[in-house]
Amino acid sequence: MDEHLSPTWEDFAAGWELGIYGDPVFCGVVAGLGLGYLGVFVVLRRMVFVTAAVSQAAGLGVALTFYVDIHFAMDIDPALGAVALALAVTAVFAVPPDRLRLSREGILGLVYIACWAGAVLVGDRIAQEAHEISAILFGSAVLVRPEDLMLVTVVGGGVLLVYVAGHRGLVFAAFDRESARVQGLPVRALDLLSWILVALAVSVTTRALGVLPVFAFAVLPAMAALMLSNRLRWVLPIAAVLGAVAGGAGYLFAFFLELPVGASQAIVAFLLFLACSPARLVRGP
């Protein structure tokens, strides 16, 4: 009886040379880097589950494009559906909660549940794409299409450039709103821009990698970086590097242990957080 042999570095190198593993690894690294950077703003603003809701909305957008294609013969790029639903949800979050007489947490829960349930229900009606819908919801980025890698790189790079260029204004408007208003900054517009950028990054990476790793990249590297430093100028690059490590190492973790890729990338991000946590005890609050 033949014994099952675990994958080796030679197997990985052979697959890399054939172009099988390069795009998924690069996509994980790029996605982790960009979302790790953006995640610092999300975590510091205590809006962690905004990312979860937006990524679920992006997953629903992908599922809807498949549904429309199958049942109405309308060929729509799944990435476009992901971006459209993510931006729609972001617009909801931009509405002041007091106008709806709901807490922000209540709105988040409402959107998250509706998008998750919607994606599952729509996925149930498109058996032809059941595997792809499952990958979007739970994260199984074994293979990444070149066009998805290109989109993640271009959109992620553009979002980071906007954040770097408008760093002072975006930070000021996000963390000291009253002072920003006194200084004449368009706080509401900057706030909306900030969430639109997050929505764009989350939607395209969700299409490529799935909901689970995207949520992990947008939260855990930032939390780990905050364990290491309180200074924003250090936290941002540290979070970006940790996110990139989680994206790349998570794929290797999945390959050698033969595990689902999305879950492996998420667990590696969690392990990095655990590794950084003792630093908080050493340096104090």
What are its keywords?
ABC transporter involved in vitamin B12 uptake, BtuC, mainly alpha, 14 helices, 82% helix
Please tell me what the overall shape is. Answer: globular
> What percent strand?
under 5%
Structural class: mainly alpha
Under the CATH scheme, which class?
Mainly Alpha
Q: State the total count of DSSP E strands.
A: 0
CATH topology: ABC transporter involved in vitamin B12 uptake, BtuC
Largest sheet: none
Mean pLDDT, as a whole number? 84
User: Which range best describes the helical content: under 10%, 10-25%, 25-40%, 40-55%, 55-70% or over 70%?
Assistant: over 70%
The SSE order reads HHHHHHHHHHHHHH
Counting copies of identical and different chains, the oligomeric state is: single chain
Helix run count: 14
N-C termini distance: 58 Å
The parts where pLDDT drops under 50 for at least 5 residues are none
Radius of gyration: 19 Å
CATH-level-4 superfamily name: ABC transporter involved in vitamin B12 uptake, BtuC
**CATH-scheme architecture:** Orthogonal Bundle
Number of domains: 1
